[in-house]
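re: ur question from yesterday

yeah so i grabbed the chain u mentioned. its 113 aa long if i counted rite. heres the sequnce exactly as i have it in my notes:
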Amino acid sequence: MLRSFDLAAALAFYGEVLGFTVESQQLGWASLRRDEVRLMLAAPNVHLDAERTAAVFNGSLYIRIDDVDVLWAQLKDRARVCYAPESFGYGMREFAIYDCDGYLVQFGQPLDS
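ran it thru and got these C-alpha cells back, copy pasting raw so excuse formatting
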C-alpha cells in the first residue's frame, strides 16, 4: 500500500498515465489493477504525519512487462523519468519513472524475451 498525500492526483496518475483501473474505492483508500498487477493507495490516516509531502518508502515498485520499449514510448513524456530504457548485465531491460508522490516505479523485461 502506498500512502499518497494527494489521493486524487495519485488516482489520476495511475489511471490516466499508467492505465490502472480502480477496482474498489472508499473514503481515503483505493485498490487498483492493470493486467495482473494490483496495488493499493491510501491517504494518510491519524497514525501518520499528515504534514509530510514526499514519499518515505525508499525502495521501488518493480513491474515485469512484455515490452519495455513500447511502454517507454507511451510514458516518457508523461512522467518524471529516473532513467531511460537500459539493458543490464543481470538479464533485464528496464526503465524507471517517479509517480506523483515521488515513489520510484521500475518496469523491466527479461532480455531473452
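noticed a couple things. Residues 1-44 form a domain with the Signal recognition particle alu RNA binding heterodimer, srp9/1 fold (CATH 3.30.720). also The two ends are 30 Å apart (CA to CA).
anyway ttyl
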